[in-house]
Fold this sequence. Notes:
- This is Spore coat protein.
- InterPro entries: Spore_coat_protein_Z/Y.
- This protein has 3 helices and 9 strands.
- By secondary structure, the chain is α+β, with helices and mostly antiparallel strands.
Amino acid sequence: MSCGKKFDTGSCVIDILKDIVDAQNDVMRDCTTSCERSIADLLGDVGGGSGFDTVPVILYCKDCKPFKGYGTKRNDPCNVKGSFFFRVKSVDDDGCAILELLFSDNHRVGGVEDEESSSSSSNHHRPIVDPKSPAQQDCDDLRASGICITVDLNCFCHVTCLPAAATL
Length: 168
């Protein structure tokens, strides 16, 4: 039995929320998700060529916790790095994706700053070495790391897109 006027999904809450969205869309159309806005920015829909090459994403596991991926570079297998920010490299028809870990230019590993950030004169914001949440990880000037992992996208229930960026 449907609670909504138009929809009958078998869930009263879903039906009502779909009715609300339908009604709201009839009145106002200026709300976009972070992903819609980031994709538009990436494609340069506003003013042409954006110079961006990545929509950084944060994925959330089904327990609603942010997913932190770990990996190493082939030439440095003992230097394991973790990140909450990813660049989607590919997605296959079965829902498997290859994600590249993204790090800020200011990323430090093992308590020692990377060479790039140690030469920086700005010390007002010192990134956390091993962040416990995306809010603790520096997202300024994200860069591709060359560290890729394979994930099953069916294990996630939520995605947040950060603003489009030039990471390569």
